[in-house]
Amino acid sequence: MAESPVINESPLKIIPLGGLNEIGKNMTVIQYEDDIFVIDSGLAFPEEELLGIDVVIPDITYLKKNLSKIRGIVITHGHEDHIGALPYVLKEINVPVYGTRLTLGLVENKLKEHKLNDIKLVTIVPGQIIKLGVFEVEPIRVCHSIADAVAYAIKTPYGKIVHTGDFKIDFTPIDGQKMDLSRFARLGDEGVLALLADSTNVVREGYTMSESTVGETFEDIFKHAEARIIVASFASNIHRLQQIINAAYLNNRRVAFSGRSMVNVSNVAMELGYLKLPEDIIVDVKDIDRYPENEIVVITTGSQGEPMSALARMANSEHRSMEIVPGDLVILSSSPIPGNEKSVSKIINQLTKKGAKMIYESLADVHVSGHAKQEELKLMHALVRPKYFLPVHGEYVHLDRHKRLAQEMGMNSNNIFILSNGGVLEFTSKTAKIGKSVPAGRVFIDGLGVGDVGNIVLRDRKHLSEDGLIIIVVALSSTTGELVNGPDLISRGFVYVRESEILMDGARKVVDAEINKCLNKNIKDWATLKSSVRDALSQYIYQNTKRSPMILPIFMEV
After folding, report:
1. Highest mean pLDDT out of 153-162, 174-183, 531-540
2. Can you state the angle between helices 374-384 and 181-190, rounded to 10 degrees?
3. Fewer CB within 10 Å, N or C, the chain?
4. How many other C-beta atoms can be found within 10 angstroms of the C-beta atom of residue 279?
């Protein structure tokens, strides 16, 4: 009897381009043959060593190569680490963007700033089926620290994939929109091929507290406060803003918004009805001096200690409309994002020096996370019961702990995959395996420049920031090639010349001697001259200072 022929199945691919081994920059590609769609398009904020960089976005080389196959981008929610890269991505890839009403309101605002008016935005609601090529994508309501967040169930040729997005299980959400746990349970009953789940809070035991607990804390603090209240929060945390407004109203205070993103987001949320305001409660921040101090609450950006934020400008006496005065009550209603601890500590110190009373997370329950802790993640795994599991959204320590949590729930470790950005997980009807990686990495945004600052430029910036710069200016005769003027040495960020005259005179003599030595050998090639001068001066300076400033020779013909 002849053997039945083996059919080569096309693989279903899951390709994270961001969000793995890092916090932020979330982007995941789902592909089957000639159909691709993307989940989220986020940015990350730069670490300290990325000098001068404004934001970091995913490398979309793979998407640009497969442009004709992309059916759309679906967004889980409106936080910057999920929508922040959209303006940069959509300049390269003009495809429809799908999201819930508030999410697209925030996206539209962002695209207007970048003058992108020809992008198709498609509003979706939980339970709706979106056809994207061969895929059927269904949004599912979840709770998070922003309204209108969704997970996605994706029907593929080999089974269903569930991507949780960012979530927590909140039984008393501010807007009354509870997470659709029954839909996750039904998906588990139907059978789930793979689960991609948020790992941000997996290292924390227990359950994340309900957002409503923060409202009770605000009411209590506002009731006893006698001075002005300034609350710093994430602009996108609409539920938090609502609770601050509610507490202000109950205590006969008016509310002013400060900070560009706070004003923009609150305007969008008010227009779309996600932020409900009592009559006449909002005042312009410029007009707050017209009211008694015990009748004002200012909601501002800057909870992460960002140097250009409204709160930082208040702390540094640089804010146009207000300044921190002794007795002001400042509440930081967030926890520091990993890496921001120093900045937050610095701003707490600055504000305390100005006489402000400070309340932050370790002193009162003025913040709860928007991410699921261990017990909520266990519930998600128990409901969905996936065959394969891919932890996402977190640094390696989070991904690894999430893998162990899945194993504790009885999952076979061979069915759990920890990928890096650019890694490819391939499925057929019977198998799952790691495929060949695709290009992935970080693209740096500096001002209007996208990707024009690379590792070499950053290395030079680091060098300049640590050791400074010496410029050598030399004038050579265009006819004879002999030294006409100089060498003149200019120091920037290296030493103060007036206090280091002996060092600089010695440096000048070293350069002069090296130029004459080269000219005596009849070396007139400028590249060789510059290299010789740079080496000689570098050696002299290191011997005398144990420092290595950047040396920039400038040769001119006269």
Report:
1. 153-162
2. 40
3. N
4. 6
Structure tokens at 232: 């710093």
Q: Does 18 count as an annotated binding residue?
A: no
51/229: higher pLDDT: 229
Contact between 536 and 529 (Cβ < 8 Å): no
Q: Decide if 30 contacts 154 (C-beta within 8 A).
A: yes
Strand ranges, E, within 239-351 = 254-258, 296-300, 329-332
Q: Which residues pair with 72 in a beta bridge?
A: 37
**Residue 4 has what pLDDT?**
42
Q: What is the mean pLDDT of the chain?
A: 87
Predicted confidence (pLDDT) per residue in 418-449, tens digit: 999 999 999 998 999 999 999 988 887 665 55
User: Taking the complete model, does pTM exceed 0.85, yes or no?
Assistant: no
DSSP-H helix ranges across 66-116: 80-83, 86-92, 101-113
Task: Give residue 458's Cα distance to chain centre.
Answer: 19
Can you tell me the distance from the alpha carbon of 530 to that of 552, in angstroms, rounded to the nearest whole number? 9
Greater confidence (2 vs 497) lies with 497
Give me the residue label for tokens 């400070």.
358
**Nearest-angstrom CA–CA distance, 331 and 551:** 47
534: left (phi over 0), alpha (psi -120 to 50) or beta: alpha
Please confirm, yes or no, whether 59 is among the known catalytic residues: no
- 368 known ligand binder: yes
Lowest mean pLDDT: which of 456-470, 492-506, 529-543?
456-470
Mean of the pLDDT values across residues 402-410?
96
In 3-state terms, what secondary structure has residue 319?
A: coil
Does 369 appear as a known binding residue? yes
Q: How many CA atoms lie within 13 A of 129 on its CB side?
A: 7
290-345, pLDDT tens digit by residue?
999 899 999 998 888 777 788 888 888 888 888 888 999 999 888 777 667 788 88
> At 121, is the secondary structure helix, strand, or coil?
strand
CA angle (507 as vertex; 501, 512 as ends), nearest 5: 125
Catalytic residue (choose from 148, 166, 170, 198)? 198
pLDDT band with cut points at 50, 70 and 90 for residue 502: confident
The verdict on whether residue 163 carries a ligand-binding annotation is: no
Radius of gyration, alpha carbons of the chain: 29
What single-letter amino acid sits at 97?
Answer: V
Separation CA 125–CA 546 (nearest Å)? 63
Beta strand extents in 19-118 (DSSP E only): 27-32, 35-39, 55-58, 70-74, 97-99
Q: Which structure tokens are listed for 126?
A: 């939980």
Which tokens hold the place of 111? 């695209």
Cite the DSSP H helix spans in 145-274.
181-190, 212-224, 238-250, 260-271
Report d(CA 393, CA 396) in Å as an integer: 10
**Exposed, middle or buried by CB within 10 Å (0-12, 13-18, 19+), for 525?**
exposed
- Asked whether residue 367 is marked as a ligand-binding residue, the answer is yes
- Going by C-alpha positions, the residue among 483, 485, 507 that lies closest to residue 495 is 507
d(CA 414, CA 391): 14
Place of tokens 């139907």: 190
pLDDT for the residue numbered 257: 93
371 catalytic per annotation: yes
Q: Which of 371, 381, 398, 402 is catalytic?
A: 371
